[in-house]
């Protein structure tokens, strides 16, 4: 994806969930962006941005460049075709994950598969300064290759983290969590992260939380998620690089 510039530092004062912001990319693709937004105009070191994309059958992202960060795309519904300058051609479907290390530079395209609309989640993760120019790389994983565990009142799938074949150059964890009753998320001390609502409704630390909502976290703590009717969230956390995030469109310098 090719996105606008962002630069602000994280806001330590957010204590309640915020709504995501609908944005339209130049190619006509619509997204619900968790951050940076007008309501939260900041990155979340080491995370550059996060959004849920919705691609109509006749839309998509033609071949375009990236460098300086890593991309994790996780499909929610439908399929997305990926092609890149490394010679990779792959279609990811619901539950599948693709990771691109853009490093010193890569070009890729993203289009819906099978003539049908698709939607998914995309996360940009900054590369530390000493790895900005590493070789570009690509890896993917089918949904059945990702570990799943029942944890209290929730089912937790690990997209990135312990047991997942998807690895990045930043210590981090990415969980897809289907909460049936109550679930407590623990963010490691010194890490930052966020919760994002995929579907359903419930509460986060007693505050209403649903599809498209986000709770940014700039320090480690426990977060309690509760629901009576079912709530699906992604919980993402990582170790900050403590370096400025300088995004210039599709590049993170």
List keywords for this structure.
about 250 residues, mainly beta, Jelly Rolls, 2 domains, ten-stranded antiparallel beta sheet, seven-stranded antiparallel beta sheet, Pirin N-terminal domain-containing protein, RmlC-like_jellyroll, Pirin_C_dom
Using the 3D structure, state the CATH architecture of the largest domain. Answer: Sandwich
Uncertain ranges:
none
What fraction of residues sit in β-strands? Answer: over 45%
The averaged pLDDT comes out at: 94
Q: How many discrete domains?
A: 2
Count of alpha and pi helical runs = 0
What would the principal axes of the Cα set say about the shape?
globular
Number of β-strand runs: 23
| Name of the CATH homologous superfamily of the largest domain | Jelly Rolls
In CATH, the topology of the largest domain is named Jelly Rolls
Biggest sheet architecture: 10 strands, antiparallel
N-C termini distance: 16 Å
Oligomer: single chain
Q: Nearest-angstrom radius of gyration? A: 17 Å
Helix content range of the residues, please? under 10%
What is the CATH C level class of the largest domain, in words? Mainly Beta
3D architecture notes:
By secondary structure, this protein is an all-beta fold. The chain has two domains: 18-145, Jelly Rolls (Sandwich); 148-238, Jelly Rolls, CATH 2.60.120. The protein contains no helices and 23 strands. The chain has strands at 18-19, 21-24, 30-35, 47-55, 61-66, 69-77, 80-84, 89-92, 97-101, 106-112, 118-126, 137-141, 148-151, 154-160, 172-179, 182-186, 192-204, 207-210, 213-217, 222-226, 231-238, 247-248, 251-252. Strands 1, 13, 14, 15, 16, 17, 18, 19, 20 and 21 form a ten-stranded antiparallel beta sheet that branches. It has a seven-stranded antiparallel beta sheet with strand order 2-3-4-11-6-9-12, with no helix packed on it. A four-stranded antiparallel beta sheet has the order 5-10-7-8, with no helix packed on it. The model has no long low-confidence stretch (mean pLDDT 94). Belongs to the pirin family. Residues 1-30 are annotated as: Disordered. This is Pirin N-terminal domain-containing protein. Residues 32-125 form the Pirin N-terminal domain.
């Amino acid at each position: 994806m090719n996105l606008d510039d962002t630069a602000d530092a994280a806001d330590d004062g957010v204590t309640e969930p915020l709504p995501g912001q609908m944005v339209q990319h130049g190619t006509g693709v619509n997204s619900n962006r968790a951050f940076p937004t007008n309501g939260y105009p900041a990155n979340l070191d080491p995370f550059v941005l996060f959004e849920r994309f919705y691609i109509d059958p006749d839309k998509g992202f033609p071949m375009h460049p990236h460098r300086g960060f890593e991309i994790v795309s996780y499909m929610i519904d439908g399929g997305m075709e990926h092609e890149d300058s490394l010679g990779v051609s792959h279609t990811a479907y619901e539950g599948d994950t693709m990771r691109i290390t853009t490093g010193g530079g890569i070009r890729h395209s993203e289009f819906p598969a099978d003539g049908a609309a698709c939607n998914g989640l995309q996360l940009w993760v900054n590369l530390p300064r000493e790895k900005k120019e590493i070789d570009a790389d690509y890896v993917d994983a089918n949904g059945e290759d990702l570990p799943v565990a029942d944890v209290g009142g929730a089912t937790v799938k690990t997209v990135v983290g312990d047991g997942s074949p998807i690895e990045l150059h930043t210590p981090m964890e990415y969980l897809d969590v289907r909460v049936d009753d109550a679930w407590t998320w623990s963010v490691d001390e010194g890490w930052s992260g966020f919760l994002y609502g995929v579907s359903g409704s419930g509460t986060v630390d007693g505050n209403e939380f649903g599809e498209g909502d986000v709770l940014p976290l700039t320090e480690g703590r426990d977060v309690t998620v509760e629901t009576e009717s079912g709530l699906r969230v992604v919980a993402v956390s990582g170790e900050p690089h403590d370096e400025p995030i300088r995004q210039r469109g599709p590049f993170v310098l």
